Fold this protein.
Amino acid sequence: MSQVYGRVALIGLGLIASSMYWSIKRGGLAGEVTGFARSEATRETARRIGLCDRVCDSVAEAVEGADLVVLCVPVGAMGPVAEEMALHLKAGATVSDVGSVKKAVIEAVAPHIPEGVHFIPAHPLAGTEHSGPESGFAELFDNRWCLLVPVEGADPAAVAQLRAFWEGIGSNVEEMDADHHDLVLAVTSHTPHLIAYTMVGVADDLRRVTDGEVIKYSAAGFRDFTRIAASDPTMWRDVFLTNKEATLEILGRFTEELFALQRAIRTGDGDLLHDYFTRTRAIRRGIIQAGQDTAAPDFGRGKSVK
Amino acid sequence: MSQVYGRVALIGLGLIASSMYWSIKRGGLAGEVTGFARSEATRETARRIGLCDRVCDSVAEAVEGADLVVLCVPVGAMGPVAEEMALHLKAGATVSDVGSVKKAVIEAVAPHIPEGVHFIPAHPLAGTEHSGPESGFAELFDNRWCLLVPVEGADPAAVAQLRAFWEGIGSNVEEMDADHHDLVLAVTSHTPHLIAYTMVGVADDLRRVTDGEVIKYSAAGFRDFTRIAASDPTMWRDVFLTNKEATLEILGRFTEELFALQRAIRTGDGDLLHDYFTRTRAIRRGIIQAGQDTAAPDFGRGKSVK
């Protein structure tokens, strides 16, 4: 692996940025990595654990002289941050991001990008239910996808350089347009998260009735939902507010299907249920074959739950 | 550990029965374990891999002389199997089961239990998305709950013996009544499974449109749902058909909550979403503190996805 950018600035120091930093170091992908976080407590934590070569106290200082600036803040904060840093960007630099939605980020950020600076949105499909500067680890992106969403007229050389950077981080890289990205992610990530949050919320109401039994007897299914529903609240609020259209569309289809299965339960239509459950099993096999998960049973918990 | 029953008969040789067998052997909990499966192919597999001390070709042969008979067939098959074995049960024997619902099992099985035989329903809260005789492993029940649901007038000594058996298998044992069991499980397991099946079904429709992208870019959330939705179709069909009332009740609450969140997305009510997502995070912490899951990120996949 060798250096792809001279200086990289990470704006926002949560799970994604901290994982990027450790991965950049592992691969020797940048000469220097600066970092900035809005919260003083986060900056202090970053300094204490050696996260970033230099933690800066302002966005301006962090982006100054950077060849790549990566916005790693919640989607709703990207516009204001882009505005704040605009005047301090180096000519010829690339601005990118790691947001889970792309149309809204492009609308919010693109107007602030000065002439002579490249803007290449990106979305690494990786994460865990933990958040904050101490939750990162270098392997987070290994063999995961990173989707680049270049805007019209993007400079091919700048795109190629960003691709090399993400490949150095360990990802498989593909390009996609913003509309399509937002729809695919509404299916594979956003709607499932909303559903998991909802189910855990229902159980929370019931928990008061059943005196802790929901937690105590938390079985496969619910237990797994709680993990998904433990993800960062600010990030997910912004995802739903900014990918509203696609999420509502997929939610509509979900409700339609759920009502059909609910009706099958009510009427006792076992054949419909059995056929449905057989079909969904095949998708699981597809995901394992595509190398996006392991075949180890029960999330690999089987022999090791402490 | 020492012997709890002289002879144990396992009826049905899938994930649960095969895990029980390996665990019984690990703990030396029975003098002999017989096994029966309806399918000849399953019996052949069991013989090939050494599952059960003796694989029998009929229910009658398997239960003859058994001190404990455990029904490990799908819930919908339990009534007919109980009827078939009734005349062959040893006086003073205990009949139990591992079904995910309890009211329907009691209604189906109890009428067939002869005078002088104990019937003590049970439900080990453990499983994986894999099924069949080759999917079992001795550690499946370690530190998981097993709920005993004794019917009115159950013999305390017989209940104590079954408790000792499940503790020997590695479980924590509690008693619960059937109605309450079915409601708690509708929340912690049955409804989450139906929701996961539904979401994966929606994606399957969409997959045809997006040419495999749903699988390719399967991210946290959906990927985890596919694991849950890969569970045994027959078992789950029977669960929903036999725990209809509680599942429909919880589904009603789920839909109500989902519509509230959907409305918040549509109207842009970020505070409601943020509050909701913060509340669900606390439940996750409760589950980890209760020892029912690990705190390792992303289902422990972080550093090891192949």
About this structure: The beta strands of chain A are 5-11, 30-36, 54-55, 68-71, 94-97, 118-119, 122-124, 145-148, 172-175.
